[in-house]
Amino acid sequence: MLPLARAAALGLAAGLCPGAAHAIAFSPFGAEGQGGAVNGQTFTIGAGGVLEELDAFVAVAGQDLNGATAGTAAQLTRDALPAGLSVALGTALLDGDTDLALTWTVSNQGAAALGPLTFLAFFDFEIDETVNTFFNEYAVTSNAPAAGIGFEVDEPGYAFGDVFDHLRAGLLDGTNALPQGSPDDVSFAFSFALPQLAAGGSALFRVLLSEDGDAIAPFTIEQLDADPASSGTRILASAAIVPEPGTALLLAAGLAVLSARRRRA
Description:
mainly beta; seven-stranded antiparallel sheet; 4 helices
C-alpha cells in the first residue's frame, strides 16, 4: 500500500495514471466534489463498475441549510453553506490504482463553533449495467461502524428507496435494504458526526473505495452483481474520521489497509 504522501508525489491524485488492467480511473470531480455520470464525470472501477452519482451533504443542528427542500441538510451540488463553512475534496489513488481515498475537509472559518455537525457522502455505482442492467445488484455489510460513523444501503430513490430523504434529513437509518437475495439498484451512503466544529477548526472525513478488497476500518459495505456471468467486479467501501487534521504521516497511518433511472426531482 502506498502512503498518501508517496501517492501525491507520484502524481496519482488526478486519477489519470496507468495502473492495473481493471483498476480505478476518473476524470476531474466537480467544484463541489460531485462525481459520476449524472454530474458529467467519467469514473470506472474494476472491469465493469461505473459511478453513476456522487454527492455530499452537510447538516448543522438548529439550521435549515436547504430552504424549501424537505429536510434541513445542504446538498452540496444545490445548496449554499453558511458563511465561513467550506468543504473541499482531496483524492489519492493507491495500491496500483486499485484503491481510491476520498478525503473531505470541512472547515469552519466563522467566529463561532458549529455543531453538532454531520457530513454525509452518497455513492451510486453500477456494475456491468450494459451487460445485465443495474437492478440485479446487492450489498453485504461486515462488522459494526466505528463511533460517529453511520451508513445506509438502499435503492437510490427512483423506485422505492428513501436514502435521499434521509440524506436531506442528515440522518441515515443504519440498514442494508438490498442484501443478497433481494437485489436491485444499489446505492449507499456514509455519515460522519461531530459534536462540534470549533471556530477556525477543520475536520477530515475519509472514504476508501477498493476493487481488490482493501479497507481502512473493520466496517465495510461491499457491492456485488448477482449475475454469475458478470465481470466479477466488487466495490468495497469503508470510512473513517481522521481525529486531527495534520501531516502526511497521519494520513498514511489512517490508510493502514486491512486487506481482508436517471433524474431526481
